[in-house]
Design brief:
A hairpin with a 5-residue loop joins strand 11 and strand 12. This protein is an alpha+beta fold.
Length: 238
């Protein structure tokens, strides 16, 4: 399909060729830039910054061979823009972004892109995980370009008070671990397992102290929960 013709009735994005910026309502800003037979689209909610938009779409063009790989989600390091802490650009495939389901050719040609913090995506997510992180409220708020607090890739499971241990890790907020280790009551057998964006898996158990066990099996005791949480934050990239 002729992508240039499809976008041509929209205002040009200053500072780029074959790029556009439009708004369907106050605070809802979309941008797009062509790259061969594909288009990169970025959406900002109450946070649009033209300079960031140009930097983001320019980066996408420069790294199009990587960002257009045939996988649900692609993450490319090396992005930056003054005033922002983002260091990653993530491209979501049609199976994830679901932007134009009623226009199959356009839908297949578009990649939705977001600026992100390094700790937020692994880069090899399957469709289910990529959709959760991109489309669900507890995931990454990629349309909030003014966000300063990352939502790290954090999968966890823990043994509940009833002794039940979930069979698989699921996405959670790091506060889950904090709430478990700062509880006033502790008992033998307390167990928390978590995974970061590097797919490194750690466990935290209670045995007269909190024991953080690294992927290589090395245990480190912590008597101070705050010290443990500081280490965990470093592990998950905060």
């Amino acid at each position: 399909m002729d992508l240039r013709a499809m976008y041509s009735d929209r205002p040009a994005l200053a500072g780029m060729t074959d790029a556009w910026h439009w708004s369907t309502a106050p605070g809802l800003d979309s941008t797009a830039a062509l790259s061969g037979k594909h288009a990169f689209e970025a959406f900002a909610l109450d946070s649009y910054d033209e300079g960031l938009a140009v930097a983001l779409l320019t980066f996408c063009r420069e790294h199009s061979a990587e960002l257009l790989r045939d996988q649900p989600l692609v993450a490319v390091d090396g992005f930056s823009h003054p005033g922002y802490g983002f260091s990653l650009v993530v491209a979501l495939s049609p199976a994830v972004h679901q932007k134009y389901p009623d226009a199959p050719e356009l839908h297949a040609a578009v990649r939705s892109v977001v600026p992100a913090y390094r700790c937020e995506f692994a880069g090899d997510e399957d469709v289910r995980d990529a959709s959760y992180r991109h489309n669900r409220a507890p995931g990454v708020q990629g349309t909030r370009w003014n966000r300063t607090e990352p939502r790290p890739y954090f999968k966890a499971r823990f043994r509940g008070d009833d002794g039940h241990l979930a069979p698989h890790r699921g996405f959670a907020r790091p506060q889950l671990l904090a709430s478990r280790v700062t509880r006033p009551t502790r008992r033998e057998g307390q167990f928390i397992e978590f995974e970061n964006y590097r797919h490194e898996v750690y466990t935290v158990t209670w045995n007269d102290a909190w024991i953080l066990t690294a992927p290589d099996g090395t245990p480190t005791p912590y008597t101070d929960p705050d010290a443990l949480l500081a280490t965990v934050n470093s592990i998950i990239g905060l």
